[in-house]
Amino acid sequence: MTMTLPEIDRCLRQLRLSGVRDTLETRVLQAQGANQPFLETFCLLLQDELDRRQSRLIARRYQQSGLEEKLTLAEFDWSFNPKLPRQACFQLYTLKFVAAGENALLIGKPGTGKSHVAKAVAYQAILQGHKVQYLEADDFFNRYALSPAAQREARLRSIFDCDLLVLDDLFLARTIPDEAGALLQTLIHQRYKLHRSVIVTSNRVVQDWGAYLRDNTMSTTILDRLMHHCHLLEFDGRSYRLKEAAEALARKTEST
């Protein structure tokens, strides 16, 4: 039995083969024009379907990740602070540390690019098929404390289950509530047991974490697990945000 294109379209819709549906007519015309063998055409249609499903998976994982920017390292201005650990950043970008279940700790002055690098690595991980959770540390701790118990449990499961967890700007407010310190310890401990990677960015040197947690023992426990098989990157130099602010102010002054 021969089907018409509309009938084939209905079948593809029932089978949820949207990638094939979207390119079927184009592939048929290409095959007719080039006398293309059936198997070659069929392989192209299958690849169309795989590409569509992969695209949807990436879009879904990006939406679930908590990221709000699709950053890369290519757009980073490395010339502004030449002493930044550029090679180490690109090494993280290969995602070998995720495959190995290792961690990364990005420490340094505000505005030097720690968050940009962490977000770029996280987005690259999504593009390569990994599950990612990106958390702004202070905001996450505050929201978690106000959440119902069932929602907390579901949130923790998603954090434990992901391939890469990013905790951005840890100790931005210097101190965190006692329950947040215990939560941080649980996150790092469970991720360590599962051999799943964590990226932490912070303006605070690790020697001061005990003071911010108000518990030196807890700080030691967290750092012991975080820094075992860890890539430590130090960011020094001028603030790029202050540079942008100064340039914006100069442009405003010139226009008045």
From TrEMBL:
Residue stretches making up the AAA+ ATPase domain: 100-233
Superkingdom of origin: Bacteria
Nucleotide-binding recorded as keyword: yes
Identification of the protein by name: ATP-binding protein
Organism lineage: Bacteria, Pseudomonadati, Pseudomonadota, Alphaproteobacteria, Hyphomicrobiales
Organism annotation: Bradyrhizobium forestalis
Pfam families, per database record: IstB_IS21
SUPFAM superfamilies found in the cross-reference section: P-loop containing nucleoside triphosphate hydrolases
Record family assignment: Belongs to the IS21/IS1162 putative ATP-binding protein family.
